[in-house]
Request: fold
Amino acid sequence: MPQPYTVLSSTTALRHQIEIKKSRFLTVLQRINHEDDAQDLLADLRREFHDARHQCSAWVVGSDRRIQRSFDDGEPSGTAGIPMLEAITQRRTGGGDSPREEVSDLSDVCAVVVRWFGGTLLGAGGLVRAYSDSVSQALDRAEFAQRARLGVYEVNAPLAQAARWENELRTASVTVMGTDWSANGATLRVATDDTEEAVAKLRAHVAELSSGNAYLTPVGTDWVDLPSSPAE
Reply:
């Protein structure tokens, strides 16, 4: 089974700005699914900040983090894109209140640093620090989630009971991917580890909710964001 990995928990772009010797560095972090998403973000930011001198970028995509790109966009070679990429790939998550040990497995993220030149040259070392710190500080403000390859199932529910079932499953830390509604009823899409023990536990939850009237229908596997662990 592919190993779980870390992603940004929000699909909304995060922005963070720092200033160094009157040069402004605006970092935009965006969760992405494909390289095309990174290119779209760059195009949007070029339109929004057409007066900026540089828009350097780095991104990592995939559970195996095999896709890694970095671009200096006119800065001296190696002073922007690579430090940004290293800030992403070396980022350690987990630990603290998380039940996971700290690991460097962040993926599916694009970082763009928009720079307005302030009139003072920073030198190669200064640029490396500026671009690295810009991304690192933005990541300090981000929230993260675990993404795992899970077995996906459907559960048919009566309209009057579907919302309650969904809420109780979430309360029991079951991953609920969503609910499809129709005039005749609702279909809950839920996910769990693809093991006999986990599936049996989910079947028991559904049987208890429905008094034995609802069943799990397997529909395949998918990458799913895991729910946050409840606070102790």
User: Anything to note?
Assistant: The mean pLDDT is 92. Helices lie at 35-48, 81-89, 123-140, 159-171, 196-210. The first helix runs from residue 35 to 48.
